[in-house]
């Protein structure tokens, strides 16, 4: 004898057509017409299209989601070509930002207990600037040599910095060794060879200051020339 069946609207289980309470979930089914959703055992089972009859055992595929991609992370290596251009375009004033940037990276890398901003301000104070400059380059020298890399002499670079004023050469010499450290520490990160946004802003500010100062100096010279009186020559 073929037994008629139906699906429970609550749990989706197949149950006899003549029951009014689902034996699986215990829900009351008396209000549902028995003629609805019946089928024979020898007929292939088809899940009804009505959403109310969808089985809880049905599996779903999670749709793909577009998650925001993190911004590109670059290595801390500073290409010498870029460093040289920054020094030239800023008239050598980039050395102050260079000091601040390396002081900040030193603090982040080794949890140094110092203020990069305060240390940079001390660069403008005579004698103190030698102390803070030596402190920075010597700490970087220790970090670089701890990796087994060939590095510079902190004392010699400080003497050259003080006596010759060859700041370009000293900074490039130090940066080459710092770059070797970051290449070893961040081998898989790409090198940022173009100017960063901060560097572009810095260049723009310094160039604007240089232009303003130049205009003021030219104006002073012109005014001074116009106000100068020359003694009259009588024949």
TrEMBL record:
Domain Zinc-ribbon: 7-29
One Pfam family matching this protein: Zn_Ribbon_1
Segments crossing the lipid bilayer: 83-100, 120-137, 149-172, 201-224
InterPro entries the record matches: Zinc_ribbon_dom
Keyword Nucleotidyltransferase: no
Keyword Cytoplasm set for record: no
Keyword list, A-Z: Membrane, Transmembrane, Transmembrane helix
Coiled coil: none
Superkingdom classification of source: Archaea
Designated name of the protein: Zinc-ribbon domain-containing protein
């Amino acid at each position: 004898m073929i037994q008629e069946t139906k699906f429970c609207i609550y749990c989706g289980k197949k149950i006899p057509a003549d029951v009014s309470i689902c034996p699986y979930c215990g829900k009351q089914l008396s209000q549902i017409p028995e003629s609805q959703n019946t089928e024979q055992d020898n007929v292939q089972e088809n899940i009804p299209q009505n959403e109310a009859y969808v089985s809880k055992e049905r599996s779903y595929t999670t749709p793909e989601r577009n998650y925001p991609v993190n911004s590109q992370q670059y290595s801390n290596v500073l290409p010498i070509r870029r460093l040289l251009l920054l020094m030239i375009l800023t008239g050598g004033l980039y050395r102050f930002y260079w000091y601040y940037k390396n002081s900040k990276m030193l603090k982040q890398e080794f949890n140094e207990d110092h203020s990069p901003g305060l240390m940079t301000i001390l660069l403008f104070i005579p004698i103190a600037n030698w102390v803070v400059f030596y402190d920075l380059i010597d700490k970087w020298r220790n970090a670089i040599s701890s990796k087994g890399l060939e590095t510079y002499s902190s004392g010699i670079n400080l003497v050259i910095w003080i006596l010759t004023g060859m700041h370009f050469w000293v900074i490039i010499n130090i940066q080459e060794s710092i770059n070797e450290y970051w290449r070893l520490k961040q081998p898989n990160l790409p090198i940022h060879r173009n100017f960063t946004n901060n560097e572009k802003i810095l260049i723009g500010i310094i160039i604007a200051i240089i232009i303003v100062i130049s205009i003021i100096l030219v104006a002073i010279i012109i005014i001074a020339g116009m106000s100068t009186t020359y003694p009259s020559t009588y024949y």
